[in-house]
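DM from R.C. (forwarded with permission)

"hey, sorry to bug you on a friday — could you get me a structure for this? deadline for the figure draft is monday and I only need the backbone to look sensible"
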Amino acid sequence: MTEKENNLSEFESLIRNRRTVHDFEERAVSSSEITSAISLARWAPNHYRTEPWRFYLPSGEQIEAICKLNAEMVRGAKGEKVAEIKYRRWTAMPGWLVLCCPKSDDEIREREDYAACCCAAHNMSLVLWARGIGMKWTTGDITRERAFFEIIGADFNQEFVVGMFWYGYPKVVPDQQRRPVADILVEFSGSD
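My reply, with the result:
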């Protein structure tokens, strides 16, 4: 196997084996690992080179405030017991990151910027996965709350959350399957 073939095989394996991680070990990921992943994430394709992504790495106090806000929201909708379970789960997450995208009056521009941010998020997840670090991408109700934006220092009127990410070293890596390509590919045959 040539070096090029080996690199392609490793890259294909990285894509095929990356998983959303729900359970993490308690050990922390260094901030340099996250900064390095963000540095590579920003090389995602983006229309007109807008580089629309804005990453927020919340402090311990901000994370605690987010966990409390989420517990309040859950308490109102599902009761105290579920709120306490969610609070304990969220406070156990080893690492937090938020990715925002600018709002735009131009619907096409906003859609293109959102797509670019999603590409950046995926770049980041692949870089972290290659380093043995898993991630969970969430977009729950809390990410649309004005109070959430205030906690992380983002401007509710100027940007929206693409994702809130929990990251850490996986305790469990889930198995997954995908539908066959024949089920998702529509091919047209042309007449010559």
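R.C.: lifesaver. The longest strand covers residues 159-168.
me: no worries. The two ends are 38 Å apart (CA to CA).
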